[in-house]
Design a protein that fits this description.
7 strands; disordered N terminus; alpha/beta; globular; 11% strand
């Protein structure tokens, strides 16, 4: 009988402890700390830029990390010159969003899930003291995207292990790990646990994306001289923002429409039906696993309610 009672108490603790972690991170006097990993100097901005801006407006701390330097991601230039250009673009976009940016010096197209790179990711998460970590899923068209997903997955437990990378103090609580959205279907399609309206910061995100000139305007590795010739001048900046508005309006509205059921579930039917633009995220099994109510508290849901709906 005593053994059964101890087991019962232990079982309750196993269920409660993950929620204690989430509750601790949500103290009103402590901002959340979010780190988003993208493979190249545009991925985290494209996938998370709107939600990052919402977090930043609430006083939370956000860092966007490009795991490679993007040095072959253009149709007519490469090497150190392109890496420097894309790093500068990423920093300019981060400034618009109100967040931090870091570009790692790993060659574009050459990222591998090595022990050295795993340690790098673990250290970055620890140094940021992350509550929430976002990355690609490990199923994607680009090997760099896939390996970012694998590296971040591999870090999900190791960030708490004292003698792994002992030069950087371990995290005593495992962060929540999540994936940004994609359209790939195998081994299973992206299934969002959180969908965030970005209507209120859509123009701010466009301004940030417009800073990534080599990619959003010139087309990156898939671009061509004809496309580059159509890029509007830098001044006034509104010209470039309006140049990309139609494609980005389609992109973000497509995500909102695809996950309309989830938006209605989170925001209610009246507001959920009106949301035009969205970003979405899926919970990874490997980090802390809060319930839906606690998970939503990690995201800027109230701040994202479209102003015309309030």
């Amino acid at each position: 009988m005593m053994l059964n009672r101890k087991y019962h108490i232990y079982s309750k603790l196993v269920l409660i402890l993950p929620l204690l972690f989430i509750t601790t991170t949500l103290r009103a006097d402590e901002p959340l700390r979010i780190i988003c990993f993208g493979a190249h100097p545009d991925d985290a901005e494209y996938k998370n830029g709107g939600t990052a801006a919402l977090w930043a407006k609430q006083g939370h701390k956000v860092k966007l990390v490009s795991v490679t330097n993007g040095d072959i991601g253009h149709f007519e230039m490469a090497g150190g010159t392109l890496a420097q250009r894309r790093s500068a673009e990423s920093k300019a976009a981060a400034k618009v969003l109100g967040v931090k940016s870091e570009v790692l010096d790993i060659h574009d197209g050459e990222l591998l899930p090595t022990l050295e790179n795993r340690k790098t990711i673990v250290k970055l998460i620890r140094e940021w003291k992350a509550d929430l970590v976002i990355s690609h899923r490990p199923w994607d068209y680009h090997p760099d995207h896939r390996y970012v997903g694998i590296l971040v997955q591999d870090a999900a437990f190791m960030v708490t292990v004292p003698y792994f990378c002992p030069d950087v103090p371990r995290l005593k609580k495992n962060p929540v790990f999540m994936y940004s959205s994609d359209g790939f279907q195998k081994p299973y399609p992206f299934r969002p646990d959180v969908v965030v309206a970005v209507d209120n910061v859509f123009d701010q995100k466009l301004k940030a994306v417009a800073q990534l000139v080599s990619q959003s305007l010139e087309g990156g590795a898939g671009g061509n001289p004809d496309r580059a010739a159509k890029v509007p001048p830098a001044n006034p900046p509104e010209l470039r923002i309006e140049h990309i508005r139609p494609s980005w309006s389609r992109r973000q509205s497509s995500e909102a429409n695809k996950f309309r059921t989830e938006l209605i579930s989170i925001y209610g039917e009246e507001i959920g039906k009106k949301i035009k633009y969205a970003e979405s995220f899926e919970l990874c099994e490997y980090g802390s696993r809060p319930n839906k109510k606690m998970l939503l508290k990690l995201f800027p849901i109230e701040a994202s309610i479209p102003t015309d709906s309030k």
